[in-house]
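Sanity check

After download, print the first record. It should look like this:
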Amino acid sequence: MLHAGVIAVQGDVSEHARAIERAAAAHGREATVHEIRHAGVVPDCDVLLMPGGESTTISRLLRQEGIAPEIEAHVAAGKPVLATCAGLIVAARDAKDDRVETLNLVDVTVDRNAFGRQVDSFEAPLDVAGLDDPFPAVFIRAPLIDTVGEDVEVLAEWEGRPVAVRDGPVVGTSFHPELTNDVRVHRLAFFEELPAEAAD
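Expected structure tokens:
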């Protein structure tokens, strides 16, 4: 049984829950999804999902509820995380916005809402490292990854700009993979990096 935690203080919780269940099923696994709104749940999770939403609110609530240090310990233990859109902003080294207290899980800097307002949202086929066919990426007020640390792997670019990266056990995307029926990004994030004890 795979225990998957979705940070549920805000964002696309149910969509991510369904995506990780489908991704697990594609690997012959069963996943139990835990919605995380307070401290004490993360330590029992094999994998974590950090959804989109409003990054300033998410970062404040993670600290307020005592969840932030548990996420940091999860990553330090080498356990996988998928951070999408605002989740990526919170996971980044620097959001270039003092209102966002980032977790410094991914060695990137980001510009919030760099791809424009809600009305500027769009879908684009992305070539993603590790996937055979383009992924239908949905961008909604997406952040721009503008600097990438030397140990960070760029998994995908759009118009020459990174939009998906991997830093150790953490995969971060500017787009919302959970808003499609395609679970390959969730599979890429979790089932290639699962610790041996969780993969058994």
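If your output differs, re-run the checksum step. Summary of this record's structure: The chain has a mean pLDDT of 90.
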